[in-house]
């Protein structure tokens, strides 16, 4: 039976039920709805609307339903109810008769769903935060396993300057730390409780909204009833954070797919995160990484979809807003899966340090060092840059690296070049010269790793 039956003579068509019913997906809010309802029953009791006995009966029935929800024992599909709120109310009436019919006094599904979904987001923010922390640990751990390994650093996907592999890991540590801080940020704005705002204009019963908010673990109540029932910014912020973090995961995946390619050969991925080809026996494909990249589409889509859904809505609640859930539920699930699989990929990967070093030594990644060397000899940087460019051309002609050119050849380009240039052109030399906060020198990176471990341990 629909909650709103009295006004209607006819039944909803099955097609209308198909478009209107949200129970098939909003049943994930069962626990939150039951918790919110327990608090609401207490608020009504305190306001003198429910007797102690009625409140106790309601609470016992709601707690029983909550246990069943936790154990997966509620049969949503068989109920035929419209949404999770109707489901819970119908179950209460079934158990308690008229007492069950009293719970919805002064409450609307509008303030109810706004509260439930905030509770749901809050819970998922907590678990996503710990997924992110686990990923940070995996990044630090692989960086430590290969702390001295040198890889080529790229710009434009051209070898640019050598960097430590650990420095690459720490770049992603920074990104995922920012994602954590975005979650912390949105948690602050999420932390207000809409319950007690009624359908749109506030409730007529003298419930204590501060008390309700506190009982549900919020910092306080929302301050405007119209806004409270029609605000979905907290979902948008979660979707934006999910999207940004998926973008970070995707870039990391893209780097690793390239490093894992036959052409680069910098690393191998474990069997546990790769798959083979049904046709080509030699293949070991980086599917986990490709899916981290691929799943961005649906997560970004969910953000876009909700923005578009919300943009034209007049105040206050409109049924359009029911569309806030499926995309968010899916986005959170995908983000969670990708964070976990990313950590597994990092745990499984083995760096081929010799091959990385060889690649970092090729491609004239030390040309900047030659320019800087000339600066140390009093040559203006722009001139040094030009001379180093000429040295690259010479090396290309000889089919060798800059450091393999004879001193006389180098001196034919610039008289300021001396024997000591060969030390400068060594791989570690330029790398360790970048001994500046945020740079790739072995010392800075070791300090950064130490600092990140410490911060994580304090969390
Ligand atoms: N299932 C609805 C939703 O998710 C609950 C709110 C319904 N309110 C209403 N007045 N029809 O948005």
From TrEMBL:
What is the protein name for this chain? Argininosuccinate lyase
List the taxonomic lineage: Bacteria, Pseudomonadati, Pseudomonadota, Gammaproteobacteria, Alteromonadales
Which Pfam families does the entry mention?
Answer: ASL_C2 (PF14698), Lyase_1 (PF00206)
UniProt family annotation: Belongs to the lyase 1 family. Argininosuccinate lyase subfamily. In the C-terminal section; belongs to the acetyltransferase family. ArgA subfamily.
Q: Which UniProt keywords apply?
A: Amino-acid biosynthesis, Arginine biosynthesis, Cytoplasm, Lyase
Q: So, what pathway does this thing act in?
A: Amino-acid biosynthesis; L-arginine biosynthesis; L-arginine from L-ornithine and carbamoyl phosphate: step 3/3; Amino-acid biosynthesis; L-arginine biosynthesis; N(2)-acetyl-L-ornithine from L-glutamate: step 1/4
Residue ranges of domain Argininosuccinate lyase C-terminal in the record: 364-429
The gene designation is argH
Recorded hits in CDD domains, A to Z, give:
Argininosuccinate_lyase
